[in-house]
Amino acid sequence: MEKVNVCINSQTPLLQFLAPTDGTAGPKWGETARLSQLKEGVDYRFSPGGVTRMVYPLVRRLLAEGFLETPHWVALNPLGPREVLADGLTLHNVALGAQQMGGYGKTKEAIWSTVHGLDPPETSEDLFWSEEFSEYAYYNRTTSERIRKLDAQLDFDLFYIHDFQQMPVGKMLDSLKPKLFRWHIPFDAERIPENWRNLFANYLESYDTVVVSTDRYRSEIAKLGFRGKSVRMYPYVDPREFQRPGKRVAAATVARWGVRPEDIVVLVVARMDPAKAHDRVLRAMARLLPRYPHLRLVLVGNGSFSGARGGLGLSKGARWKSYLEAEVRRLGIAERVIFAGHVPQAALDCFYERARFTVLPSVNEGFGLVVVESWLHRRPAIVTDRAGIAELIQDGKNGMLFDPDDLSSLARKMRTLIDDDGELALRLAQRARRTARACSIDSAARAEAKLMTEVLEA
Description:
Layout lengths: L5 E5 L4 E3 L14 E3 L9 E3 L3 H15 L7 E5 L6 E4 L2 E6 L3 H18 L15 H24 L3 E5 L6 H4 L6 E4 L11 H11 L4 E4 L2 H9 L6 E3 L14 H9 L8 E6 L8 H11 L6 E6 L15 H16 L5 E5 L3 H10 L2 E4 L8 H8 L4 E4 L15 E3 L4 H13 L3 H13 L5 H17 L1
Parallel strand pairs: 1-5, 1-8, 3-6, 5-7, 8-9, 9-10, 10-11, 12-13, 12-15, 13-14, 15-16, 16-17
Antiparallel strand pairs: 2-4, 6-7
Helix pairs in contact: 1-14, 2-3, 7-10, 8-9, 8-12
C-alpha cells in the first residue's frame, strides 16, 4: 500500500504560540515558520491535553514506520503563523475575529458543560437556535474551507477529525473521501438534550467511522440514534516520553515548589476546570490532616487552550482556580496545598516520582490518560468511577475507584494508601503497569493504521 496522505483537524493546536513581547499586535513569525527556528518556552509551548499527547506521538510513529506521507494538521490558533513546518508535519493555523471567537467559545463551552453534566440538559435546549451557534457554525465552515483548499492542492486520501468542537466539519467538507471522527470527551445519551440528538447523530453519521474511548460510549452513542459504524479504541500515550528521575533529582526539583523531605505527597494532575473536581480532594484532605500533619497536596495543571491568551481567552480556568484558593482558605489548609500550575515534563516526572499516590477526582472524564502516566511512573491511582478509564480498573487490584460525590469513600481510600507499608502500593502499581499496555502507542499505532487502511479500502 502506498503512503497515506492524511489531513488531521482538531480545535486544540499542537503548538500554542505565545504572545509577542516586543509590543507588536500580530504574530512575529510571518506567514510560514519553521519549528526548528523557534524556541520552546519563548515562541511557543506544546498545548496541554489528551489530544496533543495522543495525536502527535501517533503521527511521529506512523511517519517513522513509513505509513504516512507528510501529514497536515489544521487547528484553531489565533496567534500562530499561517503555516508551521515541524519535523515532517505541516501545521495550518486558523484564526477568527473577536466576535466569531466569542460566540464560538460560548457555544463550545455550553456543549462541554452539558455533556459533562455540569449544566442540566434543559438549560441549553435552545442552543442551536442562538446567535452564538451561528459563530460556532462559522468557525467550522472556516475550518472546512481551509481543509478543502488544502485538499485541492494536496489531494488527501482521508480526513481525521478530532473531538466534539469539530463535529460539523465532516458534513461541511462535502467530500466523498473517507472521513474518521474521534470523540474524546464523555458520552452519556441521557445528558444530550432531546432536541440536540438528531443533529448530533446527523453530524456523526457524515463520517465513515466514529472512534470512541470505551465500550460504554459505543453503547451510549447507539442510544442517541446513531446508525453509523463505531469502534472502541482506548486513548494512548508513548511510554518512552515518561522518564523516572532519581530520588535526589526529584526531591531537589519539587523543593522549588515548596515540597519538603518529610511531606507525604498526594498528586492531582488536571487542568483548572470544574469538571476536574479538585474541590473533592481538598475536602477529603481537610478530613485527613489532623491525623497526618505531613500530608501535602500538589495540584499540577493550568487552564486549557480555551482559557489561554493565545487560545479562546475564556476565563473559566482562572475562575475555578480562584474558587479553589478560596476553598483552601475556608478549610484552613492553605499551608498544605501547592498550586504548581503548568510544569515542564521533566518537572512533572519528578512530581510523579515524589508522590505517594495520585488522584483523579473528576465528576466526569472522557478517559483519564493521567492515570496511565501515574501507572507508568509506578504510582498507584485513586480514580473517579466516572472516568472512561474506570472500565480498565478493578477496585483494589490494579487501582482504587470512588464515587466523587462520596467524600468518605475518597478519604478512606487515601488513608489506606497513606497507612500502607508499601506492599499494597507495590501490588497495585505492578498490576496497573500491565494494564497500561492497553493504552500504549505500540498497540494503538497498529490499530490506527489498520482503521485507516480499512476505510481507504472499503
